Amino acid sequence: MKFLALSTSVHRYTDSGIHTGMWLGEYTHFYDVLTEAGHEVTLASVDGGAVPIDPVSLKTPVIQLGGTNKRYEDPEFMDQLDDTPAIADVNLDEFDGIYLIGGHGTMFDFAVDEVKQAVAHNGRRSSGTVRRPSLR
Q: InterPro entries, alphabetically (predicted)?
């Protein structure tokens, strides 16, 4: 099966300017479980391009949970975060499901129409660990 993992593109809180982004462990754990089971995972982001990583997700002991540190130290794995397609450019029919990757940046950009349409397109085949964005 083929799954799309969708990340935020937001790298700072709107009001405070504090850095945020994808919670790295929430992607690495999903990726590892699915690829070890023989499934394919493709990473995309809301706007496309480089995926920002929440710096708190890189701190000890958080980064040591579930082997996230091993993935962070793997240049081949981390390269996939450098240039992702935008969700608007992804053919959703190619995927069996969508996973919404957590991180506080999702509060700012997961409520855009492209994300809502992707979730609606896949219906019950969508899952995630997002930080309470408004998907109304």
A: Class_I_gatase-like
